[in-house]
Amino acid sequence: MSVLKADHISIQFGGLRAVNDFSLDLQEKELYSIIGPNGAGKTTVFNMLTGIYQPTEGSIYIDGKLMAGCKPYQFTAAGLARTFQNIRLFHGATVLDNVKMAHSFKTDYNFFNMLTRTGKYHSEERRITEKSMELLEMFDLQDKKDFFANNLPYGEQRKLEIVRALATEPKVILLDEPAAGMNPNEIDDVVNLILRVQKELGKAILVIEHHMKMVMKIAEYIKVLDFGETISEGTPEKVQNDPKVIEAYLGGHANASRS
Ligand SMILES: Nc1ncnc2c1ncn2[C@@H]1O[C@H](COP(=O)(O)OP(=O)(O)O)[C@@H](O)[C@H]1O
Ligand SMILES: [Mg+2]
């Protein structure tokens, strides 16, 4: 069953066609990747898939539901969660509270329950804390639950972002360069975690990466963007050996501003 579908989406910023005619059909529990040089349009695709930008043309469906005109929170409610290329945590809040805040998006206690602290509020609060701790344990962050987010090492802040995205209980999770700025050990760790999120939590995953090596190990299917166009797609083996992909990464038009 299709959980995330982009049907021929394009977007224009003034004179720049940042993404042209992009399509994708992600089924339950699949792991796809979008790769391409800097400036190729990868993050712009995510921004369209999560309701931040409205495509100029084409349609997006989550779980078969047409999302035209919907706001980002409606994309979240429909089952989509994402991380950003640049870390976006509540730095002055604890690790646990960062996760609980994301969880509470899906809870069914209302503002009145919260003010009056009814029994329902307390049982809901307990449930959220337990669920948050389960995710923190999976990511080996449980011992740091009371740390302020900004006191975590960089690699753990990136992991906490993934935990926060998972806390909204999505069907699909979109990761924008999850390994950016990480050292090789941290990259291996995050690669294993992404695979566990797919296999153990049963999520469909879409990963953006600038570096090909990481996704070659985990992606089942890859779309390659360059200057907003899909220049290649298929299995890692196919894409890796496609002369057009090699050219985009190593070839003539790669200049300083895109490196
Ligand atoms: N809001 C915007 N307004 C104008 N141009 C934009 C906007 N967002 C992205 N772009 C342009 O779209 C192109 C693709 O950017 P981006 O999607 O961030 O690339 P990538 O994530 O592949 O590195 C770039 O040329 C970028 O400057
Ligand atoms: Mg980007």
UniProtKB/TrEMBL annotation:
**Molecular-function annotations in GO:** ATP binding; ATP hydrolysis activity; L-isoleucine transmembrane transporter activity; L-phenylalanine transmembrane transporter activity; L-valine transmembrane transporter activity
InterPro entries named in the record: AAA+_ATPase (IPR003593), ABC_AA/LPS_Transport (IPR051120), ABC_transporter-like_ATP-bd (IPR003439), BCA_ABC_TP_C (IPR032823), P-loop_NTPase (IPR027417)
Q: Transport among the record's keywords?
A: yes
What positions does the domain ABC transporter occupy? 4-252
Biological processes per GO annotation: D-alanine transmembrane transport; L-alanine transport; L-isoleucine import across plasma membrane; L-valine import across plasma membrane
One Pfam family, short name: ABC_tran
Query: Which SMART domains does the UniProt entry name for this protein?
Result: AAA
Q: What are the protein's UniProt keywords?
A: ATP-binding, Nucleotide-binding, Transport
A single GO cellular-component term from the record reads: plasma membrane
PANTHER family annotated for this entry?
Answer: AMINO ACID ABC TRANSPORTER ATP-BINDING PROTEIN, CONSERVED COMPONENT OF ABC TRANSPORTER FOR NATURAL AMINO ACIDS-RELATED
| Name used for this protein in its record | Amino acid/amide ABC transporter ATP-binding protein 1, HAAT family
Q: Which organism is it from?
A: Flexilinea flocculi
